[in-house]
Amino acid sequence: MKKVLLLAAVAFGFNAMGQDAASARLMQAELPVSTAAKEKIEDIILKRGGAVDDLYDYTDFLYQYYSSDMTLGAITTTPDSSTVIVYSDGSSGNSYNHAVGATYDFNYYGWGDNEFDEGDQVTIDSLFVIGGYEIYEGNRSDKIRFTIFKGANGFSAPFSGVQYPAAYFAALDPTVQPTAKTMAYAGSSSHGVQGGPTAASTVTVDYTLSASDTSVALIGVEVPNGGFTMSGNELLGVFVEYIPDSLTTTDTINYQDLAGDINPFYFYYYREGNTSAPQGYFIQDYDSTSTNCSNFLFSETRYGAHAGTSAWRNDQTSINMLYSHLIWLRASGTSSIGVDELAATEVSVFPNPSNGVLNVELNANAAATVTVVDVLGQVVYRSNENFVAGERKMINLSNKAKGMYILTVEGEGVNTVERISIK
Q: Would you list the DSSP string of 146-195?
């Protein structure tokens, strides 16, 4: 949830920055995850409602509290699971991981004052992932593909459930079998690339990697057509694939001499440091949310190298509750939580779309700050205004790039967000 924290972690080698893990575990032991705990936390979290425009990432959320007990890792990911990987010590192995993902529940009290109510509309504006990219073969069009979809927050397609044995995670109630949600995935017997999430309606965005993305890469894409909208009571699935160019049946990635037939990409993740006695950080709110899980797509056969259904095993995603990939997103909307405490000041923004020159009008007298950010969260305009009811304030963004922006108006008695488009 804190973009600065996450990017600082990247810049400084993911150094521990959060609270003391021992204290965090003590608090967890004193207040076990339960309905009573949920209600207690809800009582002490500020519910301001109104305009919401924020980054959502549960890795960052957990990192703040368990940083000294979190380990950074990376998993090489290719659509070809028979790719031979030669490690730096000369040993060899195969890549079995084809994609990673996450699920998001915006009706989750852990988001604090950026929680949405079940009836609120949420718009996904942009998507991000952190990974490592190396170029061993030039002139390739390697891609990162983001696929997002929504569905009912239950255990029917496009989501399914996986139960863990009671007492499997030390920090959880030993009498409870926690159930975590994963994305339902449908493979194809003819070719692996034809497989994917079972959702009936998906939005796919491709990002073409370049030399500027080598080493640690922060990959970000804008969701097209004004964003992806969903209801606060739905679950969001985020599916992230690496699609290398020019695949063959004898590909090799050699980390010993930094060479290969294809270019490697590995998604970064955090995992629990003590896997022999897992604490279950990523499902500690299992009784109230579907947010805290990380999904892997894996296989033990090749993509496209075999014919017939008997050879096809790329048909499932797996939840690993000890891992959390660095996947996050920017979402916006108007939260109705606590909205009864806010004055009913109406805000009008017009024309929209515009050529960059637009008007902001309030139906009441108020001092408010007008802020405009792009889809990556960068502030491109900010102004403190004294509004008079019915008076128009002109906002000139004609020197900004065409595209989608988020405009917020915040002040005493007013707190709203509008999506604007410059044509």
A: EEEEEEESSSSTTEEEEE--TTSSTTS-TT---EEEEE-EE--SS-GGG-
More confident residue, 15 or 211: 211
Q: Which residue has the higher pLDDT, 49 or 413?
A: 413
Task: Give the mean model confidence (pLDDT) for residues 380-393.
Answer: 90
CA distances (Å), 404 to each of 116, 148, 309, 368, in order?
22, 19, 44, 22
Q: Which residues are within 8 A (CB) of 215 and not within 5 positions of it... i.e. 6 or more apart?
A: 132, 133, 134
Q: Report d(CA 353, CA 42) in Å as an integer.
A: 38
Q: What is the dihedral sign for C-alpha 374, 377, 383, 384?
A: positive
Q: Is residue 323 a contact partner of residue 278, using CB atoms and an 8 Å limit?
A: no
Return d(Cα 268, Cα 203) in angstroms, integer. 23
CATH 3.60.20.10 correct for 343-422: no
298 neighbors 382 (Cβ within 8 angstroms): no
167: left (phi over 0), alpha (psi -120 to 50) or beta: left
pLDDT at 89 over 80: yes
Q: What is the pTM of this model?
A: 0.71
The tens digit of pLDDT for each residue in 214-235 reads: 888 889 999 999 899 999 999 9
DSSP SS3 for 111? helix
Instruction: Parse the chain into domains and list their residue ranges.
Output: 3-334, 343-422
Vertex 232 angle, CA 220 and 340, to 5°: 120
Q: Which residue has the higher pLDDT, 12 or 275?
A: 275
Average pLDDT for 262-268: 90
In whole angstroms, give the CA distance from residue 290 to residue 103. Answer: 7
